[in-house]
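User: Fold this; tokens only.

Assistant: Input:
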Amino acid sequence: MCELLAMSANRPAEVGGYLSRLIPRGGRTGPHADGWGVAYYEGRAARVFKDPAPAAESRFLAMLAQHPLRSTAVIAHIRLANPAIFGRATANTHPFEREWNGRSWVFAHNGKLPGIHERELPEDCRFEPLGDTDSELAFCHILDAIARGIGRQRDFSPAMLAHTITPVVKELAALGEFNFILSDGECLYVHAHTNLHRLQRAGDAADGSNEMVLLATAPLTAEPWQSLAPQRIHIFRRGRPLVEPRRAARPSIVPASYGAAMAAAAAA
């Protein structure tokens, strides 16, 4: 499959030490040798670096891990192509990025969604995959739900977005394994389907005021990583988890036609 790493912080922080521990799993100590990618946010814009070569063999990725790049939101991914027919290619390498509503949206996935290629996107969907992966197609489905449910609103709450994408996330998760991290630069939206871990730690500020949360498929250090509760969407902003609102507090605002379109495509 693949492995994920992400960070959210209330002040720009470095994640290179953890990235250095992930790199060997990309073809040396682990099998994830079909590409790597890292996205660092600068406000609403993401700087995305990626390559379909093994992470463990990449001098550029090693340089990125050692370079003092600081950000409040980072998403990294190392890939094992599954199925192998969707092999090494830039278009198949995570994280994927699209613009919507003046923000860079970045997405990375661990798992497998058999059957998703039979579920066509709505005809008027703005988002199309560039590559072959189930992951990128799932990203397009999620962005379509956001575009329909949130639209051009600039002041939407994280809870509103989580409720907006919940129906399509549930439909896609029913196909297989769907651990993912999605960000707009402000929050990390994390679906822990089967296997994701969280580490809460203080940053490097002298006054101890920095807040940082790290997420990884498997713990990267001997620190006290904890498993995320499965089969739910977790939200992290500025280094802290946001309390999940009660489901009854706000109904989903995804149009009913979206679920109907998905079902019709599946039956076709």
